[in-house]
Each structure stands twice: as C-alpha cells, then as structure tokens.
C-alpha cells in the first residue's frame, strides 16, 4: 500500500498533464476555428460585394445591348431609305433607263456625241438603243431633221 500511493500520484500527475494539454489544444482549436470563421466571413462579404457588382454590370450590359440593337435597327432603316433614294437617283441617270424610254446613245470613235454640231457628213457612228445597236454613216448633220 505504501507503493500504491506514489503510483497513484504518478497516474494522477499524468492525467493532470494530459488534461492541461487537452485544455490547451481545445483552446488552440477554438481560437483557430474563430480566426478561420472571421476570415471566411470577410471573404463571403467580399464575394457578395463582387456578386452585386457583377449583377449591376450585367444589368448595365443588358441595357447597353438593347440600346445597341435599337440603334442598329434605326441605322439600318435609315441607310435603307438612303439607299432607296440613291438607287432611284442612279436609275434616273442610268443610260439603260434612258434607252428604255426610246432614246439612243450615239458614239463616234468610242466617245459619246451630245451635239449634232459635233458630227460631220461621212462620220461613222455607233448607235446604241434599248434592244441593240447599229453602225451608221452621217449623211447630214447640224440641222433639225424630221
């Protein structure tokens, strides 16, 4: 029994040391967990702020895309109108349109002749009409011919 007492004290000492170590580990784990929780909360807050920013920018991008689509449609409609006006103007001066109305284009040596005064008797001319052409020799020029 006398030896049992020191052995009991030894076991109790070890148990007390282990309990102290367990208390220190528990405290360290709690402190580490709290620190990690705070870090996680900070990162979560940052992530939420980024998500809100991204959402706002997505809405802005959607609005801009909608405006761009409408502007593109307006510009296309405007340009189609301008193209129609230019097409009509081009058709008005198109030599083929003039020919289809019964007029002819006369050329001498490949150059258009716009005045009877520019022609001389015996000039060879090319006449272009709506459905073809002819080659002719000028008999008389510079006068009103009926």
How would you describe this structure to a colleague?
By secondary structure, this protein is an alpha+beta fold. 66% of the residues lie in helices and 12% in strands. It is built from 2 helices and 4 strands. It has helices spanning 4-93, 95-100, and strands at 105-108, 111-112, 124-129, 132-137. The chain has a 4-stranded antiparallel beta sheet with strand order 2-1-3-4. Strand 1 and strand 2 (111-112) form a beta hairpin. The protein is rod-shaped, with a radius of gyration of 51 Å. The mean pLDDT is 91.
Spatial arrangement of strands, main beta sheet? 2-1-3-4
The computed structural class is alpha+beta
Distance between the termini: 159 Å
Largest sheet: 4 strands, antiparallel
Radius of gyration: 51 Å
Following the backbone from N to C, one meets helices and strands in this order, namely HHEEEE
- Please state the overall shape, judged from the principal axes of the Cα atoms: rod-shaped
- How many strands in all? 4
Instruction: Give the low-confidence spans.
Output: none
Task: Tell me the fraction of residues in β-strands, as a range.
Answer: 5-15%
Mean pLDDT across all residues, rounded? 91
Portion in helices: 55-70%
Number of H- or I-type helical stretches: 2
- Quaternary state, please? single chain
């Amino acid at each position: 029994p006398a030896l049992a007492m020191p052995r009991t004290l030894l076991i109790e000492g070890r148990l007390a040391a282990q309990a102290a170590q367990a208390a220190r580990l528990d405290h360290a784990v709690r402190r580490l967990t709290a620190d990690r929780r705070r870090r996680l909360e900070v990162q979560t807050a940052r992530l939420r702020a980024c998500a809100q920013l991204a959402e706002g920018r997505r809405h802005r991008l959607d609005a801009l895309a909608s405006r761009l689509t409408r502007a593109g449609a307006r510009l296309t409609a405007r340009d189609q109108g301008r193209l129609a006006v230019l097409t009509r103007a081009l058709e008005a001066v198109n030599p083929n349109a003039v020919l289809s109305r019964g007029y002819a284009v006369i050329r001498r040596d490949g150059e258009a002749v716009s005045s009877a005064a520019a022609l001389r008797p015996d000039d060879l001319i090319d006449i272009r009409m709506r459905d073809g052409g002819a080659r002719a020799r000028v008999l008389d020029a510079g006068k009103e011919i009926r």
